Amino acid sequence: MNLNNKGFTLIELLAAMVILAAIMAIAVPNIIGILNNSKADAYVEDAKKMISLAEYKVRANPNLRPVSTESCRIPLRELDNSEFKNAPNNGKYNLDNSFVVVTRSGSVDKKIYAYSVTIVEDLGEGKGTRGISNASYTMLYQDKPTSLVKNNPSTSGPTKICGS
Fold first, then answer.
1. Over the Cα atoms of the chain, what is R_g?
2. Is residue 111 within 8 Å of 59, Cβ to Cβ?
3. 52-61, 64-73, 94-103: range with lowest mean pLDDT
4. How many CB atoms lie within 10 A of CB 66?
5. The pTM is what?
6. What is the CB neighbour count within 10 angstroms for residue 42?
7. 121 exposed, middle or buried (CB, 10 Å; 0-12, 13-18, 19+)?
8. Number of continuous H segments (helices) and E segments (strands) in the chain
């Protein structure tokens, strides 16, 4: 009897399937983790951009500066938001709940302004929100700033809009 040995046996096929499944079990979670870290990095970079835009706007327009030691907010709607059209999770940044808080401190002679940012992406269709809540400039430049990204971030802050 002459057997044709041109194919794979069932055992060889099963062994190959087990090896592929093991590789997938290791690779897929790592790839998902890399994608999530990339999205979190995008939030942090967008938050840094918002603070830079707010600093520029406050320097250029003295009417936006808070008086005494109060705080006010500059919503994303009031900033040049052309760079914020594409949010990391394919939602849209909330133009009113994403804002920079400007706080004045220091003496009468030496005015110091501190900035913190809240950036919120509406994920759409009841999926909630994702973003960063009340992060200072220093916090955005720490070792692991991606840890600042949370689901449903708080949007509390001063209600007064800078310059109004």
1. 25
2. no
3. 64-73
4. 21
5. 0.80
6. 17
7. buried
8. 2, 6
What digits encode the pLDDT tens for the residues 98-134? 999 998 887 666 778 899 999 999 998 888 999 999 9
Residue from 84, 109, 111 nearest 96 by CA: 84
CA torsion through residues 72, 149, 93, 87, sign: positive
Give me the amino acid identity at 27.
Answer: A
Strand, helix or coil at 83? helix
Tell me, letter by letter, the H, E, C secondary structure of 105-146.
ECCCCCCEEEEEEEEEEECCCCCCEEEEEEEEHHHHCCCCHH
Residue 20, C-beta contacts closer than 8 angstroms, at least 6 positions apart: none
Q: Which whole-number Å values give the CA distances from 25 to 11, 33, 37, in the listed order?
A: 21, 13, 19
